[in-house]
Amino acid sequence: MSVYFTAELFQFLTRLKRNNKREWFQAHKDEWETCVRQPVLRFITDFALPLSEITPHLVADPRPSRGSMFRIYRDTRFSHDKHPYKTNVAMRFSHRGKDVHSPGFYLHLEPGGCFAASGLWHPEPPTVLKVRNAMVSRPAEWRAVRKLLNWDDASKLQRPPRGFPADHEFVEDLKLRDLGTAVNFTDKQVCGPKFMSTFVAACRAMSPIAAFLSSAVGLKF
């Protein structure tokens, strides 16, 4: 068992939140590299094998850029918040060639707010329609996995979507725009020697949702 992340990762993110400026980040870039970036890339590398045992169709890509690790830089073009850096660290394990919106696994590290997730976040309307059609056409499968849903969906429809009956067994699920499940971790768990096995277990527990949503949108799992 290995320790991948230490309290220094969370300390760095806390300080970055207080000093979210390019000058501060550049002055502390060595710390970012040592305490954050390199441990994350090592975690992604080592997760590849257990991920392949869950499913061969998701990828753990340890490339320093355009891989599983999200960029630290925020896209501020259309945001009122012009802070240049994210104050969390995130990893995605998606279908090969697909972006974060494919129903793979996601790991989010932030002081006091660490979690793993799987699902579809803000999918395009054609994707949501495919999932709704799968719920209705494969009711036994959906009935078996729907209990795993635990995301709060503030954008949930007030009425059943067009073309679906208001008295359907899954009417509340059909109203959802975001669908997924999450498992929370404490900072202490993340910094412990068993975190890899804890994360793998979380992914296994979430995999029924990932499998159903993948098949609904035409992806293998």
Number of domains: 1
| Shape assignment | globular
Low confidence ranges: none
The CATH architecture is 2-Layer Sandwich
Bin the strand percentage: 5-15%
Q: Given this structure, which CATH class is correct?
A: Alpha Beta
Described by strand count, sense and barrel closure, the largest sheet is: 4 strands, antiparallel
According to CATH, what is the topology? BirA Bifunctional Protein, domain 2
Helix-strand category = alpha+beta
Task: Provide the succession of SSEs.
Answer: HHHEEEHHHEHH
The whole-number mean of residue pLDDT values reads 95
Number of helices: 8
What's the gyration radius in Å?
Answer: 19 Å
Total count of strands = 4
Helix proportion range: 40-55%
Terminal Cα separation, in Å?
A: 27 Å
Main sheet: strand order: 1-2-3-4
Written overview of the protein:
The protein is built from eight helices and four strands. The chain has 221 residues and is α+β, with helices and mostly antiparallel strands. The protein has one domain (7-216): BirA Bifunctional Protein, domain 2. The protein has a four-stranded antiparallel sheet. The mean pLDDT is 95.
